[in-house]
Every structure is written in structure tokens, then in C-alpha cells.
Amino acid sequence: MGNRRRARELALACLYRADLLERWEGACVEEPLGSWSDDEAVVEFARRLLRGVRDHRGRIDAVVQAHADHWTIPRMNIVDRNIMRMAAYEILFCEDIPKKVSIYEAIELAKRYSSKDAGSFLNGILDRIEGSGSPHG
Question: Of the residues 49, 72, 90, 94, which has the fewest C-beta atoms closer than 10 A?
Fold first, then answer.
């Protein structure tokens, strides 16, 4: 498994925790990282994702909501919505990461950590976000 995939897994775990506890402020989101990996490249990329999602969560959720027909953010499975947030952050704000890679990685995370239908659910919404043409939805 590559460093970035491992970082995405760690970031997903932290996002899940923050969402479950409703603790998005400051360092609370990335608090567990240091104890989960000693690979600095993994931790640094995970931190980048976590800070991005935390800092832009309102905008990310608005964009996801605008592209998620018949779904609201709170109604989404907690794992799915946090995979979606992370991938949407990459698509909207990380010009150095190819958008198709972000979508592919989100689908791979969903295959491993969510339901059998989650990959196609995420793919549909993320493809619409990616195809919207606007850098921020």
C-alpha cells in the first residue's frame, strides 16, 4: 500500500472520529495521528487532508449537497460522507492531485470501509463535482 493511500486511511479515521464526536475545532481533528503512524510522509499528507477538510468543511459540504440528488449530508453514512469530504477537498482545492486519482482513491476506500454500493454512490457525486467546471463547485 502506498504512502498516500495509508495517509487517506488515517485521515478517514480521524474525520470519522471528529464527525462522531462533533469535535472539529483546532487540533482535535488530527490529534490521534502521531500515535497511528511513525512515517512522517504519511502523517504529513494526512494532516494536509485533515486541515483542508476542517478549514473548508462548510464549502465542501455545500458543494457535495449541491451535487447529491435526493441526499443530505446528515443522511449519508458517516464513513461515506467523510470519504466524500476528503475526495471533494482534493478535487476542489488540491491542484497537484489529479481529480481522477482523488475519485479512484475514494472508491477504493469505500470498497474497504463501507458498503458494497458505496463506491458507485461516491463515484456518481464526485464525478458531478469534478465535471462542474468550477474550481470550487
Answer: 72
